[in-house]
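G., the chain you wanted modeled:
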Amino acid sequence: VVGTLTNTSGTPTLTLRGSGNIGGSGSITFYNLTIGDGTTATTTLTSNVITTNNLNIGTSSSLALGSNTLTIGNNYNNSGALTANTGAVVMNSGGAGNTLVGNMTGANAFYDLTFDNATGSWTISIDAKVSHNFTVTAATAITAPNGTLEVDGDFAGGAAFSQTNGTVSLNGGAGSTQHITGSSTFYVLTANAAFTRTLPFAA
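Predicted structure as tokens:
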């Protein structure tokens, strides 16, 4: 991988250009992680990665997660391509005003997407798809997009989850079971009725 490594408050900022892997023994921590900055970069995670600030995927660049976990301290911006594989994205900022923006549907869908900080708040700014589980472990506020948030696995929300407009679409496959848990308030909630499925709601 060709790139530059700078230091911010004792934590490195990595900007990648070219093709290669990010991996090592245990989790690797960066301040900012940028995949491509006006160049084409193709990057694959081979271990868990933590970015304590922002994750940016540049135009014409791509990031593949494999089966690893990518933890993001603040904002997610995908102007290129994400291949989630069976990997997880965990948003864990302790601050307000964080956003998820860019390409988040189709081939750029998340596999597992989790929000996990009791003092953090996030806005999903545009249509997004989670092809497996959507989980709010802890948060102050999760604002869904005005368009569509599609979830193909379990939806574990809570009081922090809100919609002022838009749709949550439960779109699991034939014969699937999608569990809906947490005291979420939906604006519009739909489920794919093209085939028989089970949608248990927690009591």
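DSSP finds no helices and 24 strands in the chain.

Shout if anything looks off.
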